[in-house]
């Protein structure tokens, strides 16, 4: 190689570029088109039935690896009607035929279950039939949401076409104040970037050593609200300790190129809330005081882990709920529920 080609070949890479390079078998940079091997495909009862239709239209007979095709029932729990029940039964038949691993009703939320069951690991490339598959970046993996036709193609071939995204670097400094959470950090970043400010880009975090794995999951999950293709935490000491292994850890090169950089002072962040009906309409929680609300949900794929439940209990205590207000508490998985009961 000579000239600019050699210069690019020698250039530093972001975490996203490194993971795509590993899975495409060649050095890749933002803007490149690659066909990459995927480690895991994930469908929900929301995306799976349509993916199965495409699977059949594409002439699929067997998946590329039944141990790497995961189906999770979590969008329609409990099942609301006979039509949805029939679609779920179709997915069960697919599982009984040895085509996938099924995590059935009541096991939990897909983005909690995949890490719990060992499907997420550093350096992995995971495609999911749910936009919040960006969550897996918390584990130094690259997770991204895809449509049902792309999901079907990946289930058949174990490969998928991608355009390698540019990366926005978000660097943390300082420490969170008491009762300021990762959700507050995520919403603060969403406000700064805007609802489409990172459209088809990778959001790469640095300086995250003070953040737990659970907090990282919340942050990576929420980055899809900026339009991000994926969100990635570094392969640092926290991840090394979580997996008890150095295998596959990915760090950006010091000369990696970014489309933009943001510095976030964690100590300056205060509790915030996104007002209806825009995710980037983020204001200090004081501005929403006095607003009547009828229902609250503690859970979803963004939160609902034990640390979230502990903090809610700390804030609410044993006080009675306001008359007319309903609070739904949904632990993110059966394992989280069991841990919370024993806490």
Report on the architecture of this protein.
The protein is α/β, with parallel strands linked by helices. It folds into two domains: 265 residues, Aconitase, domain 3 (2-Layer Sandwich), CATH 3.30.499.10; 51 residues, no CATH class. The strands form five sheets. Strands 4-3-2-5-6 form a five-stranded parallel sheet, with helices on both faces. It has a four-stranded parallel sheet with strand order 10-9-8-11, with helices on one face. A two-stranded antiparallel ribbon has the order 1-7. Strand 3, helix 4 and strand 4 form a beta-alpha-beta unit. The chain is globular. It starts with a helix and ends with a helix. The model has no long low-confidence stretch (mean pLDDT 94).
Short note summarizing the structure:
The protein is an alpha/beta fold and 343 residues long.
Give a quick set of tags describing it.
15 strands, 11 helices, 343 residues, 4-stranded parallel beta sheet, 5-stranded parallel beta sheet, 2 domains, 32% helix, Aconitase, domain 3, alpha/beta, single chain
